[in-house]
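Quick note —
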Amino acid sequence: MTDTETRSPATPARRGRPRAFDREQALDRAMRSFWEHGYRDTSIVDLTAATGVNAPSLYAAFGSKQELFREAVDRYDRLAGAATEQALRDAPSARAAVAALLRSHADAYTDPANPRGCLVVLAAAEWTGDADDAAYLARMREQTAVALRERLARDVTAGDLPADAEVGLLALYVDTLLAGLSLQARAGASRATVQGVIDCAMAGWDACVSAGRRRA
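Predicted structure written out below.
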């Protein structure tokens, strides 16, 4: 199952017969394999070992390595997106929302129960393949920035941020921090270290807001 392979005609999906494996469980295990090793370095052997499903059955269920990867990224995004949604929904202020977003993601990036870093950030950083997939990964990353821009825009309306605050620039700043925290976690930085970076970032939040105000 290479990057460009599609389902083998010799192994079509059999209709009317139940699969001998749990598709969601296999997808979860494939997600973790891609997360740990990256797209390029995750082979069909890795995927069959991780999922316990043979190659013909993986073809029948997912179509190709590329399609399986996209489903795995979608699954990861649903899981990570829940923390993003909660942080941006429940925090009482823009500053609190940004802090909650950064800290929840940093905890996830350094959770010893999971591979380190963010699957989407890491995949985008290594991607050298299909342009459509590069655009797809970029759109996945953009979702957090869009949600943050919407939250900050509400804070402007509520008067918590200045009326001329450049919410797009502030959201880009936070997205840049998230990407950097992911790469640091991947490189082995501890939870205490990445949380310390967030302490520094939040200490300068008011200055960042001031610097990000629209120029006349």
